[in-house]
Amino acid sequence: MAKNYLMTPGPTPVPEYIRNEMAKPMIHHRTKEYQSIFKDATDGLKKIFKTSNDIYTFTSSGTGAMEASVVNICSPGDKVIVVRGGKFGERFDEIAKAYGVEVIQLDVEWGASPKASDIKDLLDKNPGVRAVYTTLCETSTATVFDIKSIGEVVRPTNAVYVVDAISGLGADKFENDAWGVDIGVCGSQKGLMIPPGLAFCSVSPKAWKAAETSRLPKFYFNFKKYKKAMDDTDTPFTSAITLVIGLRKALETINNKGIDNVTAEHAAQANAFRDAMKAIGLSIFSKSPSNAVTAVNTPAGMDADALIKLLKTEFGVTFAPGQEKLKGKIFRAAHMGGIDKEHTMESIKALEIGLTKMGYNFNAGSGIDAAAKILGK
């Protein structure tokens, strides 16, 4: 059977040893056996987030945790600052507005990173702002944001600092506590190497202070329910048992290597892929590229979606398309989670052949040679 290479920024490939772990017989979740597994997974997550704060686990997509970060700290009429530099920054905007929260938009050019000074200006002009929402890696543009610098301007204020680290965690550097992040949001299907279905929020004392007075409606995503259950090493609602079992195994692997070492591995893959694209003659879309994913501009006149379809159909390599105004103009290749050196090199080989088939002229093999200088043959 031909091998497939999933290069999308979520879901990412699930290594066989994790799939085998999740294939074991089902257990009941209201037992000491499961509580031990859940505790190991939660403790492992804290090392990845680099936090001493509580982390709550939801059975949902990452968007569920994004919603939780709004409904648990805001009240109707509150003002929040939302950095909108792509589809997922815009999602925070949409969630807040759905609950009657007033959004102060900081629009950033797609592919660029927001300036901390611009956020400081908005905070100075709006001293009652409840929270600042931004992303670690804006997946739609493959752009990493300077979370540390933004944290330095938010920390002295009363605003809660919320960071969507769904794509970036495990690939881009992230230090929840050191950078003053009050709520860190993540999902399971990206850097954590397991299927979709789990989402997480780290919650600081500052965020908890805001949660005590929040008046937005909430039930399933109520932090207070999760905090109470956590006292018994449990969740308030049925856990995605199989996914948590897989999560424990994945985190064991990551933490045995060390999260900084894992981040460095993904950075090497990202750099190798980008060097390959430049050698081929293709340009990188982002001005501040993430280690988690790279967005590549296709040659003038070439439909990126047609290229993506060709690579998947003929070579079993799946890249992600551009979204909204980038549709047909870029393709995105991930470097996170279960994506390894083999995925990176084989996808470059397929891309070279695919580009040639679509009439693009370049020095064949130049991409592979450039990547091999970083990753080896």
Can you walk me through this structure?
The chain has 377 residues and is of the alpha/beta class. The chain folds into two domains: 5-10 and 259-375, Aspartate Aminotransferase, domain 1 (Alpha-Beta Complex), CATH 3.90.1150.10; 16-257, Type I PLP-dependent aspartate aminotransferase-like (Major domain) (Aspartate Aminotransferase, domain 2). The chain is 42% helix and 16% strand. It has 13 helices and 14 strands. The protein has helices at residues 16-22, 32-49, 62-71, 87-98, 116-125, 147-154, 205-211, 223-230, 241-257, 259-280, 304-315, 341-357, 366-375; strands at 5-6, 54-59, 79-84, 102-107, 131-135, 137-138, 143-144, 160-164, 183-187, 198-203, 293-297, 317-318, 320-321, 330-334. It has a seven-stranded mixed sheet, sandwiched between helices. Strand 13 (320-321) and strand 14 (330-334) form a beta hairpin. Helix 1 (16-22) runs antiparallel to helix 9, helix 9 (241-257) crosses helix 10 (259-280) and helix 10 runs parallel beside helix 12. The protein is globular and about 60 Å long. It starts with a strand and ends with a helix. The model has no long low-confidence stretch (mean pLDDT 97).
